[in-house]
Amino acid sequence: MVIRRKDTWRKAVALAGTLFCVLVMPPAFALDFLSVAAPAVLFDAPSNKSKPLFIINPGTPVERVISLEGWVKVRDNKGDLAWIEKKYLSETRQVMVIADRAQIRAAADDKATLVFEAERDVVLTLLEALPGGWAKVKHRDGQQGFIKSVQVWGL
Fold it and tell me: Which residues pair with 64 in a beta bridge?
């Protein structure tokens, strides 16, 4: 039996690199969601002199793509990209219903009592993301419950 030191060394280096990436570096797939704090204009470039695209409603969840000198490039629930001034964003987590009619239940279980239903594009405050594909949410009228993660955007 012949032991090859080069192969052993290469495997050790590859393993060390993999462990570094898994344990030290943040995951590249982690999404950074924010919400719009006040009505704001979205632009096609990071400047008030650029082309205004549309006005976005307060509470709308957006995904931060990149930040640049007081501006943030965001993605909405339809996948559209635009720039917004950072001062109009909040760390408060909101989610938007993407199902035609989402069921919010008393517990994180399909068989739990139905608390209320929310139609497409309704914005809910995210209270807690739970394992198993559920999230605890709150409606602006105060009702709370659990919704399936696949029925909302912004997690």
Answer: 74
